[in-house]
Design goal:
- By secondary structure, the protein is of the alpha/beta class.
- It has 2 domains: 173 residues, ABC-type transport auxiliary lipoprotein component (Rossmann fold, 3-Layer(aba) Sandwich), CATH 3.40.50; 153 residues, Rossmann fold (3-Layer(aba) Sandwich), CATH 3.40.50.10610.
- 42% of the residues lie in helices and 20% in strands.
- It is built from 11 helices and 10 strands.
- A 5-stranded mixed sheet has the order 2-1-3-4-5, sandwiched between helices. A 5-stranded mixed sheet has the order 7-6-8-9-10, sandwiched between helices.
- The longest helix is centred in the middle third of the chain and has 37 residues.
Length: 388
């Protein structure tokens, strides 16, 4: 008895479907935007996608709401890191025109369309959050980072089961924590690629003009500012909006020392490189298990309150004062500089109360071998932590 659907016919049907999918992708026309102003930051195309076909109502959140919410969350997370430049959605719309792209089209051909759109946007990376159809109450997703310069793809799977009696807010908080952990793993996997991109873009940044500027007219001397005190401020002296955060952190005190790691100070062309090195150091110190790390988001919040720059500290006194407002016990500060043909990174760990140095370390690399700095971060973390 013959099979109702011979294998050859099934294979032919699958081939026709695949051809139709590829043809559908080729029909999408993209506009290319003018090159954006040069920046050493990593330009990122954030792409939330529901790629698996599913019946209406299968998800508690619609595809559009999921895309909007996820874009806002991921964009905020990346921007808080300091070294990313998230591409606005209106630029994505300008590339796509009025075309509505189904989820499966984005992922077809190993994310070919996503890569094409990323190049049209002059992106360095694509950050994809792919939502898949739930099976047996297991919510499956994958976070993906694609490097458009090297072609490397980094993936981290996320699987979450629904918890009985869990409120919607609790579920959202748990999901966001899982996403943060997935990002951390992705960053550690992709940091070498990102660091190389930042070094290349930093070198391409136009050096400041050496042509002397005409002398500016004499200005009255600036009003003298009171120095920031390093003693513990009174409760009513803490900037508005930070008291609640301070009390929350103090209430959640653990046996671990609370450590704030500030962005390494660096010149403009090395700013992004320094921030990636700082982020890598935070992750290495976290992995050692000795410290409770202050989130960079909280550091930025304090800096905004004090109207300080968000990359590098003004002086050590301010670093100590801010550490107290962040309920930290210790700080790590450092500087990345160029000395002749060498890059030199110096860092130290300081006790906030005694102002004593608890750990110190440095890294060096010659120009053209900048990756040695990143490779040395794990040993630098151990030196700062006082470990062999």
């Amino acid at each position: 008895m013959k099979e109702p659907f011979p294998r050859l016919a099934v294979a032919s049907l699958l081939t026709m479907c695949l051809t139709a999918i590829l043809a559908g992708c080729s029909e999408i026309r993209l506009n290319t935007l003018p090159a954006p102003p040069p920046t050493a930051k990593l330009r990122v195309f954030v792409l939330p996608v529901t790629s698996t076909p599913h019946p209406a109502g299968a998800w508690p959140v619609s595809d559009k709401d999921f895309s909007d919410n996820q874009y806002r969350h991921v964009s905020r997370t990346l921007q808080m890191k300091g070294f990313y430049q998230v591409i606005p959605r209106d630029e994505v719309a300008a590339v796509l025109g009025n075309q509505n792209i189904e989820g499966w089209r984005w992922s077809a051909g190993n994310w070919k369309l996503a890569k094409d759109v990323g190049r049209a946007l002059h992106a360095d990376y694509i950050n994809i959050f792919e939502r898949k159809f739930p099976v047996r109450s297991v919510l499956s997703a994958e976070q993906i980072i694609i490097s458009l310069s090297s072609g490397r793809i980094f993936r981290e799977s996320i699987a979450s089961t629904t918890t009985v009696g869990e409120s919607f807010a609790e579920g959202v908080a748990r999901s966001q924590e899982m996403m943060r952990n997935a990002y951390r793993k992705l960053f550690m996997a992709a940091k070498g690629d990102m660091f190389a991109t930042a070094v290349r873009k930093g070198k391409a940044e136009k050096a400041p003009s050496k042509t002397p500027s005409p002398p500016a007219p004499a200005a009255p001397p600036p009003e003298r500012r009171a120095d920031l005190r390093t003693d513990k401020p009174a409760k009513d002296e803490i900037p508005s909006g930070l008291q609640a955060m301070l009390e929350e952190h103090q209430a959640g005190t653990t046996g671990k020392s609370r450590l704030v790691v500030y962005d390494f100070d660096a010149g403009e062309q090395l700013n992004v490189v320094a921030m990636i090195l700082t982020e890598a150091l935070r992750e290495e110190l976290h992995e050692l298990g000795k410290f409770l790390l202050v989130n960079r988001e909280n550091i930025v919040q304090v800096m905004e309150e004090l109207k300080l720059q968000q990359s590098g500290m003004v002086d050590e006194g301010q670093a100590v004062q801010m550490g107290k407002w962040l309920a930290a016990n210790e700080t790590v500060t450092g500087k990345l500089a160029v000395l002749g043909s060498l890059y030199v990174l110096q860092a130290k760990r300081t006790d906030i109360q005694s102002l004593g140095t608890l750990g110190i370390g440095s890294l060096r690399s010659s120009m053209g071998k900048e990756e040695e700095l990143l490779n040395g971060v794990p040993s630098l973390a151990r030196k700062l932590a006082g470990l062999p």
